[in-house]
Each structure stands twice: as structure tokens, then as C-alpha cells.
Amino acid sequence: MESGTDSASSKGVFIPVPQSSDEFQNNILAALQSAYLYEESKQSFRYKSAVLIKNSALEEKYNTFQAKRREIGYSQEDLEETYGFLLFDDVNKANALGETGVLTGNSTCTTLGDPLKGVYISMYSDCLDLNRWYHGKSGYIAIIRLTKGRVKKVLENYTQNFTAPTVGFDCHVSEQLPLVSAKTSSFLAFERTQYYMYELLDDGSNETAQSPSLAYPFAIVSFSYTDTEATLVAPQEKSEEKKLVSHYVPWRGHLQIGTQLYDVGLKSTAGTMTPAKLYWVQCS
């Protein structure tokens, strides 16, 4: 993964973190593993390398947001910090967060609010796409420090008349969130476990900031995904299937050509299916 050396306050500096370090184990790995929705993720995800993001300008914005909200009466619960996650296939796009922060328009999701007025960030580190993970998938996960602020539960909106950011709040979540479990389809789980976060400007225009201050990129981790069922069960199934194909002969008999008699048989390329019960029918 790329790292930078530019110390300018408006630039992101990427600091490599060894996997054996306390920083990686206690802060990066712990943040990822404590935010799994699926039990199998513990065995399936392998994290290869990581960098911390240091950007003093973005960090100052983040801290200022917290201080201003505290001054106007936000509770400690409103200001409690958590983590969110974003998936990238391209390391350059992931690294761009270190300079710009999370920008509006970052997602194709629209159910919780206008994507051009806020950002969508996943709650779970293993629920980052509409589709389920597949064996051999790799990429980059950005860990985002979040101060959710005041959160409003909203109905999912599947129309093109997008839900507007709510004055007096900073974040929308789905009303269906409590119903999500590991058994929920990947499509619904992804949509219903999003934070829609926005920052209304103080000029009374109802416009929003392009990079909301309440989301601060913390780290980027490269990963690979191994489907343990695909690697362990599938070979066994294929082996059993081969046995069925090579040994199943549905009919054997004799073929006579002239005075020669030959043993012949039909070999099936499909598996067998044994009937539960055979019936004898006598024809009159």
C-alpha cells in the first residue's frame, strides 16, 4: 500500500502499521473484528497491510464539529465516537480519502437521503456491498471515525424524490435497522445498515458541506476474503460427484451381432436418484 511523506496540513500522510504492532492489533484489527455482522467473517477475512491516515486539517474540522455541538447542548451520547467502513477496489481512490475526507456522492444508495447532500457509510465491516462476499475477493477497507450527532430514524425511500437532510439532526438511519440479522439478505442488510451523514451549513441555505466534518478517515487496510465452505466442502462434493458419474450404469444387457454376443451397458453422466418406494403394478 502506498504511503506519503508530505507534511502539509491539507495533505494526507499515510503511516504504515506493522501487523505485529499494538497499534494494528488493538486499534485497527479490533475495530474491524468488533463490527462483524456475519459469524463466518472471523475465519474468512485476512488483513494484509494497513496505514494510518494523518491529516491535521481534517482532524481539526472533526474536533471543531464536536466542540460546537457540545456548546449547543448535544449530549454525551450524541457525541460518542464510533467507527464506520467503506469498501474500495482501487487503492488510489482509498488513499484519496486522506486528502479530501469522505465526499458527498460517494455511494449509489439513496434510501436514507440524497447522496449528493450527504455521505453513506457502512456500520459493519463485513457488510460493505449489495452482494455477498465471494472466494478470492480482495480490496481495501477504509475505517472512518464517526461522531453521529443527533440521529433520526427514517423510512426507506425508494423513489427519486430523495429524503432531505433533517434540520436539527446530523444522521439518518433506517427504521428497519433493528430487524437486520446475519440471516437477512445481503442486499437488504447492506441498505439497512448504512449511516447517512450530512452537515447543514450555518448560513440558513439548507445546503450541506461537501465533506461532512463528523466523518474523519482513520486507516486503510488491504484484505482478502476466503470462503471456507468453498475451499473445504466443494472438493469433497466434487469427489463424490465424480464417483457417482463414473460408477452409475442405469442399464446393462447383451448385444448380438451375427454369432457374436457382447456385454453392453449405458453409462449416465448425471447422478443417481433413488426412489423412496417402488410399486408393482399388474396389468390385466
Architecture overview:
This protein has 284 residues and is of the alpha+beta class. Helix content is 24%, strand content 26%. It has helices at residues 22-33, 41-44, 56-71, 91-100, 186-192, 228-247; strands at 13-17, 45-54, 81-88, 119-122, 138-147, 151-154, 171-174, 194-197, 215-225, 251-257, 260-266. It has a 5-stranded antiparallel beta sheet with strand order 1-2-9-5-3, with helices on both faces. The chain has a 4-stranded mixed beta sheet with strand order 4-8-7-6. The protein has a two-stranded antiparallel sheet with strand order 10-11. 28% of the residues are buried.
**Biggest β-sheet strands, sense, barrel:** 5 strands, antiparallel
* DSSP strand tally: 11
Strand content: 25-35%
Q: What's the gyration radius in Å?
A: 28 Å
Query: What is the straight-line distance between the termini?
Result: 81 Å
Oligomer: single chain
Shape: globular
As laid out across the biggest beta sheet, the strand order is 1-2-9-5-3
Look at the structure and give the mean pLDDT: 85
Total count of helical runs of at least 4 residues: 6
**Helix/strand class:** alpha+beta
Helix content: 10-25%
Flag low-confidence runs. 2-9, 241-247
Secondary-structure element string = EHHEHEHEEEEHEEHEE
